[in-house]
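Figure 6 in text form: structure in, sequence out.
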């Protein structure tokens, strides 16, 4: 019989990581989040969890977290501090104050002394230094210095695609196991890699809404927009056709599956003045059907950002020698939710703001991996 674990979630955001934990006998009983808007949405999704909203660096907030966690008999901590200070998508400043958020996590671990701790972040976490005892020290070395007398510490880099998550997403996972407990290990990787075709290939064609052309032109461009939109929303209220500008939609219509519009023979990305866009080949790029999705980022609404465009399907040959493809758009929020391995019935409130949730999803760790990992917590 599995032991039921009580969990404290630090930097809980809106609770993407926690989506499956109740299924495996893990109760997130206490959560902390700095930003009220996120904390409020978390509480709507997980009303049974006691949310403490506030700055974990504040002694008042950390004392509340500790007291409530002791009251609720917390034995596992899930800590996912913000990663923008060390992400490859950020500036990676060595003195970024967000990198210091590991210090209150260490303090809470020492005061609460749970059986197990998971600390999750971007891969570059293992190469990031913070100011500690008068010099810059690797964060992982700080954790080992502060906690190795009480915990076995395992530092791992994983790719979630190896755990049946349909997304290539490298993460750093630190597992702490109290010395009087059996060691918490990563789950065994799967031999099955889940592709984008398996994940969203069943969703019918969805046309984008083009905001900068007149109604007649839009109807000529996408005559089936309304009926496709209706079918999309019948699948999920979050399967909302994205809104784009015409010059970006047009260039993606002629971009093949898995390719960048920069490689098109004729229709290449252009600016408003008609000049060519200069950018990286992972922008204006369609995903591939036969692999997991690219890493979902916070800026996932834009055609012009990293690998955000639907793979599309071949429609027809054109007289200009190029081919035309369907779905010249960013992925819908619903498609992103499936790619992040969120449950199809995840209780996101109807009044949640789509743009806000999109950014949050880009920050999160896929919950299916978290489920597999937490299911691997030793019984003894």
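Output sequence:
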């Amino acid at each position: 019989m599995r032991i039921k674990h009580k969990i404290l979630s630090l930097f809980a955001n809106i609770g993407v990581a926690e989506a499956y934990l109740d299924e495996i006998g893990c109760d997130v009983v206490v959560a902390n989040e700095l930003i009220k808007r996120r904390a409020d949405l978390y509480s709507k999704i997980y009303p049974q969890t006691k949310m403490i909203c506030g700055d974990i660096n504040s002694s008042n907030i950390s004392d509340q977290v500790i007291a409530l966690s002791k009251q609720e008999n917390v034995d596992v901590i899930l800590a996912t501090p913000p990663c923008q200070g060390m992400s490859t998508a950020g500036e990676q400043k060595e003195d970024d104050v967000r990198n210091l958020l590991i210090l209150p996590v260490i303090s809470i671990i020492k005061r609460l002394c749970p059986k197990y701790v998971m600390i999750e972040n971007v891969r570059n976490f293992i190469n990031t230094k913070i100011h500690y005892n008068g010099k810059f020290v690797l964060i992982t070395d700080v954790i080992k210095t502060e906690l190795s007398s009480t915990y076995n510490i395992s530092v791992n880099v994983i790719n979630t695609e190896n755990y049946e998550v349909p997304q290539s997403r490298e993460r750093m996972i630190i597992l702490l196991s109290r010395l009087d407990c059996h060691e918490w290990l990563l789950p065994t990787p799967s031999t099955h890699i889940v592709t984008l075709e398996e994940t969203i290939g069943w969703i019918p064609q969805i046309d984008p809404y083009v905001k900068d052309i007149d109604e007649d032109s839009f109807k000529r461009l996408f005559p089936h927009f309304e009926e496709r939109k209706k079918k999309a929303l019948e699948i999920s209220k979050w399967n909302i056709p994205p809104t784009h500008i015409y010059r970006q939609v047009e260039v993606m219509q002629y971009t093949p599956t898995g390719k960048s519009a920069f490689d098109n023979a004729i229709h290449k990305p252009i600016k408003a003045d008609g000049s060519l866009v200069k950018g990286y080949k992972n922008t204006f790029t369609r995903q591939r059907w036969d692999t997991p999705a690219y890493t979902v980022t916070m800026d996932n609404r834009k055609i012009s950002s990293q690998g955000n465009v639907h793979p599309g399907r071949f429609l027809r040959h054109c007289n200009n020698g190029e081919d035309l493809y369907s779905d010249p758009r960013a992925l819908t929020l619903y498609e992103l939710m499936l790619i992040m391995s969120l449950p199809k019935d995840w209780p996101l409130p109807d009044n949640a703001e789509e743009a806000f949730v999109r950014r949050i999803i880009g920050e999160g760790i896929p919950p299916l991996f978290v489920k597999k990992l937490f299911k691997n917590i030793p019984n003894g």
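Caption detail: The chain is about 25% helix and 15% strand.
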